[in-house]
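Run log // design_07
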């Protein structure tokens, strides 16, 4: 019987799990839509204190994998297990296109979301963490696209979830705002959070990710740190790694 971790559930840790040692473990994940196989026998672990990036072409199973990790989709085969201290919100999530009530201020947005979760939110601290403290009283509709994305990051961290999934947090942002988004992710990882992020910005992934999973044709076609993957494929950048894994083009060194 398939079991999945759901962000809406409180998962109890085993007694041997140290405080702060929260992770997601996927074992033999396979998913099919009818006769179409999207994922095949995937094993992976999202570990605390690290940024794990998921990269790969569109249509190769990245979104399906994220939805399974989040508990939004039950895999055809395999299991996903959350291990860690009991938490009101074990898994946080930033969708690619977060939506907010436009008339709410930034602070009201976080307070409202916390109320939905039954949590009290220190909105000043939450907004300060993402650089939006000065915009606390500004309506969401008056925020720039980048500021709304930062508000989405703040919302994903409400309740201090030990695991957080970010889907394209830098999509559509200018370079400085994209970098800021990844800096926040790295800061959270440094505090012990298990971070998983899907992104097409391979320059930022190379700079900030501790571990990279290359998804291609429904499998994990490459895994390791950016430096390890570059050494393995004899390439000089993560863009070249991507090209080597997905298209079979390797470096000459």
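design_07 sequence
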């Amino acid at each position: 019987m398939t079991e999945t971790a759901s962000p809406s559930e409180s998962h109890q840790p085993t007694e041997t799990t140290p405080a702060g040692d929260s992770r997601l473990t996927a074992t033999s994940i396979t998913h099919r839509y009818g006769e179409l196989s999207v994922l095949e026998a995937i094993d992976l672990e999202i570990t605390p204190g690290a940024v794990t990036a998921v990269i790969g072409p569109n249509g190769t199973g990245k979104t399906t994998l994220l939805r399974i990790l989040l508990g939004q989709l039950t895999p055809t085969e395999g299991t996903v297990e959350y291990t860690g201290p009991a938490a009101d919100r074990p898994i946080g999530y930033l969708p690619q296109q977060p939506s907010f009530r436009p008339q709410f201020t930034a602070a009201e947005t976080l307070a409202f979301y916390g109320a939905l979760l039954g949590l009290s939110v220190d909105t000043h601290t939450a907004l300060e963490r993402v650089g939006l403290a000065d915009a606390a009283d500004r309506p969401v509709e008056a925020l720039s696209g980048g500021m709304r994305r930062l508000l989405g990051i703040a919302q994903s961290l409400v309740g201090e979830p030990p695991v957080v999934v970010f889907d394209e947090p830098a999509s559509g942002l200018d370079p400085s705002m994209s970098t800021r988004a990844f800096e926040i992710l790295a800061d959270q990882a440094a505090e012990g959070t298990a971070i998983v992020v899907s992104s097409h910005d391979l320059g930022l992934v190379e700079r900030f990710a501790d571990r990279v999973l290359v998804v291609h044709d429904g499998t994990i076609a490459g895994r390791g740190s950016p430096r390890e993957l570059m050494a393995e494929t004899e390439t000089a950048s993560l863009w070249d790694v991507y090209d080597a894994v997905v298209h079979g083009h390797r470096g000459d060194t």
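Strands lie at 23-33, 36-46, 50-55, 77-83, 91-94, 163-167, 194-198, 211-216, 219-224.
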